[in-house]
Every structure is written in structure tokens, then in C-alpha cells.
Amino acid sequence: MKALITGAAGFVGKHLIDHLASLGWGIAAARLSDEKIDAGAEQYELDILDADAVKIFLESVQPACVFHLAAQSSVALSWKKPSLTVDVNIKGTVNLLEAARTVKTKILLIGSGEEYGYVSPADLPIGEDTLLRPGNVYAATKAAQGMLGQIYARAYGMDVVIVRAFNHIGPGQPDA
Description:
Blueprint: E1 2-6, H1 11-22, E2 26-31, E3 42-45, H2 51-61, E4 65-68, H3 75-80, H4 82-103, E5 106-112, H5 137-156, E6 160-165
Parallel strand pairs: 1-2, 1-4, 2-3, 4-5, 5-6
């Protein structure tokens, strides 16, 4: 089985490459031109903001599934560069969903616990049905990404899995 990992040069991407490789999967690791991946995977340069390049890339790789890790994931940077955050997290995801629809592949979208925003004690514990109240630009883009994934799944019968991951730490995580 071949998996495509977008954002493969990031903190989580490196760990996912190692895990999938240990299971014997073929891996297409997509990264930006200025990024480097030290893990063992087929590496490709891909800018998810280039819709045509994303479509051509997925058609050539034909992955069985896509792990969409590419994102502008800094809350602080989302305040400083909101347009960049919207472009990468929303437009980039739409480009990927469109390409995945064409090649009929499964896709995993990674959301964030930030989507829940300001949670009152009455809302605890948080569940999937807890109201989303994004409190920053990053959280709003991740909420939009999840909504788009749901729309594509319903409209096109796509196999889209959406998670809202909370903070995670581990070896190799950058200080920022």
C-alpha cells in the first residue's frame, strides 16, 4: 500500500514516516522545496497552493490514502500572517480534496483542539458534538478545513476522516 504524507518534513510527519515504513508501506513524502526529510521515504517537492501541481502529483503517485499534515500550525503566526494561514490551511486543503476526489483516494484531515476555543466548565468533557468556538485565526481555518472535509464526503461520497488533535509533544519537536 502506498501512502502520501503532505507536510512530511514537519514534526509529526517524520514520526508517521517511520511508523508506516515499519509496517511495510510505500511512502510518498511531500515537502516544500526548502525543507528536508531525513527519514526513509520517496521525497517530492509539492506546494499545496498550486492546485494543478497537486492534481498532477496525486494522479502520478496514485496513493491509497493521504495523510494531510501540511498546515500553518502556529497560533501566534496566524495572528501575524492571517492570509498565509487561510491560504495554506483552507485553500491548500481544497486543492488536496479536489485532487483526492479525482483519484478516488482516502484522506485524513488533521484538525485541532483549538477549534473548540473557549470551553465552559459545563461543556466538559469535550466531545465531538461540543460546539466549535474558534478563538484565533488558526482555529478558524482548522474548523473550516473540517467542514470542507465533511462537505466533500457527503457531496462526492469520499472517504474523509477528520480528527481534532490536541497538543502533542515528543522527540524532534522544534522549540517554537
